Amino acid sequence: VSTQSTWGFQESKDMMKVFQLSTRITRFTLLARVFSAGPPPLKMDFSEKVNTKEVTLKNPDKLKKMNICQAVNNAMDIALATIPKSYVFGEDVKFGGVFRCTVGLNEKYGTDRVFNTPLSEQGILGFSVGLAAAGCTPICEIQFGDYIFPAFDQFHNEVAKYRYRSAGLYNVGGITCRCSYGAVGHGGHYHSQAPEAHFMHTAGLTVVIPRSPIQAKGLLLGSIRSPDPIIFFEPKILYRMAEDMVPEEDYTLPIGKAEVLQEGKDITMIGYGASIRQLMMASKMAEEKGIKCEIIDLRTIIPYDIETIEKSVKKTGRLLITHEGPVTSGAGAEIAAKIQERCFLSLKAPIARVCGFDTPFPFVYEPFYLPNRFKIFESTLKLMEFQLKQYISIQSVSYTHLTLPTKAQVQISVVAVSLKKKPT
Amino acid sequence: TTEIYTRSIVGSVRCVQETGFPIFRTMDLEGNVSDSKYEILDKPTLIKLFDIMVTERESDRIALNMHRQNRITFYFSHLYEEAVGPAIGAAIKDEDKIVLQYREQGILLWRGFSIQEILHTVKGSNKDHAKGKALACHYSIPKIGVLPLSAPIGSKIGHGAGLGYAFRTQKEDKIAVTFMGEGAASQGDFHAGLNFAATLGSQTLFVCRNNCYAISTPIEDQYAGDGVAPRCIGYGMPAIKVDGCDPLAIAYATKHARQMIMERKGPVFMEVYGYRGGDHSTSDSAPLYRTKEVLAKLKPYLDAIGDPIIRLGKYLEKKGYLANYKEQMDKVGKAAVAECHKYAKEMDETPYPEYKTMFEDVYSYTPQNLQEQMEQLDAHIKKFPEFYPLSDFKKKQSLFNLTCLLYTSPSPRDQRGSRMPSSA
């Protein structure tokens, strides 16, 4: 309660200054609002069309503008309508969900099938295993990926091993666990985590992360119908930001297959979820320098599509992997190890991982923490500039052609190699 | 009925209640039933119950001896808890599903699982339905409605809640019987599972076998309250404590519990008081912590509950269904032992499944990484076949071969938990 009974002239002038300042700040922040943490994005259209190589639509003209939230809602609506033993449940699911992904489902299908659970992630997953063991299709929701850990024992020791320990007599393939994921601009430790790496180490689990509404709907329907249990991480920053003209019909996208979004000859870039946007912006920046980037969306993080990645790296010779989660033992570490096993001689430069730091997800430092397009761009340049000959002295060379060979024709067999200069 | 107040006899002195929950029993130690309304089982069922209990005790004894001969690697004994499984099996329907913890083998025998199959499962031979993947005694048997066992304690309580919910919402006349020990009732999964079952309405019968010990942890170190059943007041579900060495009481309580579950469309909890007569498993040695002093303290409780086989035998004699229960024990016991020996020989001779089976059933398909790893192992074994026990996974094994192994270089399998002299 103000102790002043009247505003004097000076006070009202100050108040005007505050008001003008605040409108200026609001206007500025509105510009930067789209990516609340970090610089405003490049003006690019991230909306997509359905990849006709992957899916043939029955009604390709029946499209509706949807964001990821609505696409996921649509997918669950179709699942509940077409699979009689399916259920959608989780915390706050009944009124529509805290991200509004389950709006209207309870009214349409009833509380037996779309319901709130008590607040217990370990309970939600244990309950899902029971439902799936009875042959049902539980589509459970974990509100934030940060809170998936109480359920980790159920995922790791029960869900992943159910089929294995019964030698296929039982399975819990009906489980699809939807979970919000990743940085959102102001999430801090517990609303921004990217926990997919913890699940990569568990044989038997499948993790799927979509990048756009078309992908989200198709991959979610693919996950629900998959005979294996799947964790579906939805990048929460894209819930409303990503918009596509999504087909209204029932279509599924393949699980376990990566997608090449953009062909290029210089460098292969791998990402998933919201990182795809950073990759696309970085590749636009790189194109100005004449670097042609090949962008691959991993989509299924485990088991991942190594063949697509290998084919691309053998073509370009350079690999960059980006993800929001911490760099140590993240998805990038696994892919890098696998690629160096398979494509060692094709690599022209070391594999770069542009990822989050090995810290808990910080609150105000998010613009510095996240792997953004500038970090990706810098890595790209470094990879392109990396010249092996700085570090290796070739002691003998044998030519396979007698005529003066062009660069493309020379086959250098490096007989002895010594490091001339210690690589930094 | 003679009421036993556990508080006054076995620990739990920190409980704030003045008196404990009473324990339901129908039959005293001499086999006198207090009221004829409790005699709901007919003669063939009672004889079968008695026979199965004796078979369980005798086959356990033989299996423990076989473990000492290093013919099996692991086993659980059910001494003094033989009544729980068969009595519950007698009172539920054949369609009801069972989620076990691990000390309820009697219900498998009741439902027709044979000693031959048990022995093959315990060994993990190629006649084991789980193809040797699960730890010994971790059953998954769809033909008698037993869900895959797993070692983590308490994790299957939530599964029972989910199963029961599927039965209710699919309008099936089935319940899910979920077993646990009093130690499992301390887990978070217990709380989550019971809360979910009660709040969402699952057709589940939770059965807690309170046998005073969780490996070496006595109940004074497990909880401060009056056992496990009173916790259900908090969850909002009916609960009962039953004398675990009184098969009639267990059967009666289970039958009424099942009726209650189907009427109120919600779960019921049964705490069955018994005593774990043997070790926790073949890896445990109870005399280390169950010293003479401890046993002296437990004596009033053990005297109060007695031996289930003797109690039932005396009751059957009084009813005239058996002329002499000791003779029946002898006869059935000898038959069980003979069957054990016959199938033990077969078990010894049956090899384990092929090592390639290790790579199956992780997913519903074989992903690329497993295909690659399988090929790597194949190539490796071709180069170093002598270091791998391929003969155990290929040729039939007899007792004669086993003694020969003493004189050959010990393979990795023999050294694992072996009690035979290692390079004799």
Structure description:
The complex is a heterodimer of chains A (424) and B (424). Chain A is α/β, with parallel strands linked by helices. Helices cover 34% and strands 18% of the residues of chain A. Chain A contains 14 helices and 16 strands. In chain A, the strands form 4 sheets. In chain A, strands 3-2-4-5-7-6-12 form a 7-stranded mixed beta sheet, with helices on both faces. Chain A is globular, with a radius of gyration of 25 Å. The N and C termini of chain A lie far apart (63 Å). With 424 residues, chain B is an alpha/beta fold. In chain B, the strands form 2 sheets. A 6-stranded parallel beta sheet of chain B has the order 1-7-8-4-3-2. Chain B has a two-stranded antiparallel sheet with strand order 5-6. In chain B, helix 7 links the parallel strand 3 and strand 4. The interface between A and B is large, with 50 and 50 residues.
